[in-house]
Amino acid sequence: MIWKWLLVAAALFVLYKLFVGDRDRDEKKKAKVQERKIAAGELVKDPVCGTYVEADSSIKVRDGEAVHHFCGYDCRQKFLDRMQDSGREIPRLDKKDDDDD
Ligand SMILES: [Zn+2]
Questions:
Q1: What is the Å distance from ligand 1's center to 73 Cα?
Q2: pLDDT tens across 24-78, in order?
Q3: What gap in Å lies between CA 74 and CA 45, rounded to an integer?
Q4: In 3-state terms, what secondary structure has residue 48?
Q5: How far, in Å, is the centroid of ligand 1 from the Cα of 55?
Q6: Is the separation of the CB atoms in 55 and 42 below 8 Å?
Q7: Distance 76 CA to ligand 1 centre (A)
Q8: Element (H or E) spanning 46, and its range?
Q9: Burial (Cβ within 10 Å: 0-12, 13-18, ≥19) of residue 45
Q10: How confident is the model at residue 1 (pLDDT cuts 50, 70, 90)?
Q11: Separation of CA 4 and ligand 1 centre (Å)
């Protein structure tokens, strides 16, 4: 009767392998998609925390020619504080409330 249990164990093992293999593939697929998006400029790195953010929905700071992307206002503030600390002029924020232009 033990062969029955061995069969069950083998079946479970195969299922487990399939499941883990799928997840593995998914992870690799996700990494590929991310790589492609980074190359296409759709994903950009937050210079403060290193998170990748969607360029369209990120919080942006224009600094001359460069545009910096942030995952949140906390990171943007940290970045601006650092700029100020290093004696640089803080770039205009993308807000509508500074009309003196
Ligand atoms: Zn961030």
A1: 8
A2: 899 999 999 999 999 999 999 999 999 999 999 999 999 888 899 999 999 999 9
A3: 15
A4: coil
A5: 13
A6: yes
A7: 7
A8: none
A9: middle
A10: confident
A11: 54
**CA 24 / ligand 1 centre spacing (Å):** 27
| Alpha helices in the chain, H assignment, sequence order | 2-40, 73-85
First-to-final CA distance of the chain: 86
- Residue given tokens 């970045």 in the structure block: 79
Distance in angstroms (rounded) separating the CA atoms of residues 15 and 49: 39
Residue pair 94/61 in contact by the 8 Å Cβ criterion: yes
Give residue limits of the domains in the chain.
1-40, 42-101
Using a pLDDT cut of 70, give the percent of the chain over it: 90
- Dihedral sign for Cα 67, 72, 75, 77, please: positive
What is the Å distance from ligand 1's center to 68 Cα? 11
pTM over 0.85: no
